Amino acid sequence: MGERAVVLLSGGLDSATVAAIALAQGRTLTALSFDYGQRHRYELEAAREVASALGILDHRVVQLGLSSIGGSALTADLPVPKDALGQAGIPVTYVPARNTVFLSVGLGLCEVVGAFELYFGANALDYSGYPDCRPAFVQAFEALANVATKAAAEGRGHFRIHAPLMEMSKAQIIQRGTELGLDYGLTHSCYDPPSRTLHCGHCDACQLRRRGFLEAGIADPTHYAS
Amino acid sequence: MGERAVVLLSGGLDSATVAAIALAQGRTLTALSFDYGQRHRYELEAAREVASALGILDHRVVQLGLSSIGGSALTADLPVPKDALGQAGIPVTYVPARNTVFLSVGLGLCEVVGAFELYFGANALDYSGYPDCRPAFVQAFEALANVATKAAAEGRGHFRIHAPLMEMSKAQIIQRGTELGLDYGLTHSCYDPPSRTLHCGHCDACQLRRRGFLEAGIADPTHYAS
Predict the structure, then answer these.
(1) In b/e form, how buried is each residue of B72-89, taking b as 16+ CB within 10 angstroms?
(2) pLDDT (tens digit, 9 = 90+) per residue, A124-159?
(3) What is this model's ipTM?
(4) Cβ contact (<8 Å) for A144 and B109?
(5) Chain-chain contact of B140 with A140 (C-beta, under 8 angstroms)
(6) Fewest CB atoms within 10 A around its CB: which of A177, A224, B26, B199?
(7) Pairing mode of beta strands A117-119, A58-63
């Protein structure tokens, strides 16, 4: 049994790949998903199916009432942009401080299960303009983790935040997951999904996903509405 | 109308004092409380009454399912220690990464309401052994805030994390709040309260509160069960 780690598992393509990479590195994983009032709640079903397919026995889903602070097209009543990839600026699908909140809860879970390794799917290339997906953010969070916690305060270990996809293109991510035997048909990326089995095909997440399979030269198992 | 700020308001003595201090500094406040499965949920009622008494019009309560990760006597089914103040080590009432999670959500709320000032009641002297109540933690979080957010990424401002109680004793905190006209009878500190109007008198929080009023030479409005 490898060293224990926590992985943030959204049910999307990236986090599923991160989980597969951590398992390949010999970690024993606890997966953590969030029910935060997201429009695209099908991803929680996807997270459960991915965890099960990867043999992750410990999967926690934490409720976060982020919709009560609003501010994002993913949680509030704003339209999800379509065919808008590459437009300047940070898109309205940005959820305020989302990765900071998710990593914070992940850090708490690390303390509870005795892990010092925390994995998540931040990606600086295909990051769609989100500030909390960059190396400087990961470094700052790692520094915080090592002064914020009982485990670190008591000298029982040093936290490391792993973002193994940071420098990879979507195509490289898909290639790596495919090598590891990951079934991407289980994953869910769409921000505005017509159903669990259907992707809209036009939100930023769908466009990145579609293009990723194309560039990887790997058959895309996704069903797009159009 | 002063500069907008967010204050973490638990309903306890410390955070109520922080809110009064921020108002005295001329801030326009949004108060943020958490419903995180805490045993001492009476503090949420206290938070509402404190916000109302201070004239804070915008008060958000965010649900956090921290009990699903467990690990603390404040959220899990562990007994709250009594008459244990001063014992070595970090107490079991420590909630894993709680302040990190709370500040992260507070940071998100700052982004939504357009604030760059975030206040909370961390205190290094009476902190009962919690690692996330120290200056190094506050500094690390401020560094994180300034790389984590859309507002900072777009150069619209610089986040500051304010912990005005950091170097104050409980007696000094009570003296300051009393000068500012705060009604401590509305606040709730007890970790294991018999009722909204009664404090147990023996958990760490009650012992610190009781001693604080005594040392401040100010009449204690609290009703203790024993």
Answers:
(1) bbbbbeeebbeeebeeee
(2) 875 556 788 899 999 999 999 999 988 888 888 999
(3) 0.87
(4) no
(5) yes
(6) B26
(7) unpaired
Contact B150 A112 (CB under 8 A): no
Contact B71 A111 (CB under 8 A): yes
Among left, alpha and beta (phi > 0; psi -120 to 50; other), residue A129 is left
What are the pLDDT digits (tens) for B7-49? 999 999 999 999 999 999 999 999 999 998 776 678 899 999 9
**In the structure, what pLDDT confidence band is assigned to residue B97 with cuts at 50, 70 and 90?**
confident
User: Looking at A125-129, B53-57, B135-139, which range is the least confident one?
Assistant: A125-129
CB-based contacts of B173: which residues, under 8 Å, 6+ apart?
B13, B14, B17, B123, B165, B212
* Nearest alpha carbon to residue B136 among A143, A179, A176: A143
Average pLDDT over residues B181-210: 92
pLDDT on residue A192: 85
Q: Which of B33, B100, B103 to mutate: most A Cβ within 10 Å?
A: B100
What is the domain class of B4-216 according to CATH? alpha beta
Please write the tens of the pLDDT for every residue from A53-68: 999 999 999 988 877 7
Q: Is A114 exposed, middle or buried (0-12, 13-18, 19+ CB in 10 A)?
A: exposed
Enumerate the H helices of A34-134 as residue ranges: 42-53, 98-113
Q: Are A130 and A182 in contact (CB under 8 A)?
A: no
∠ at Cα A78 (A77, A79), nearest 5°? Answer: 125
Picking from B101, B110, B140, the nearest residue to A105 by CB comes out as: B101
Residue segments in chain A with a per-residue pLDDT below the cut of 50: none
Give the integer Cα–Cα distance in Å for A145 and A126: 26
CA gap A137, A109 in Å, rounded: 20
d(CA A169, CA A160): 23
Distance from the Cα of B86 to chain A's closest Cα (Å) equals: 17
Select from B72, B92, B101 the residue whose CB has the most chain A CBs within 10 Å, as the one to mutate to test that interface: B101
Give the pairing type, strands A160-162 and B4-8.
Answer: unpaired
Handedness of CA A213, A134, B151, B145 (dihedral sign): positive
Residue B183: is its pLDDT beyond 90? yes
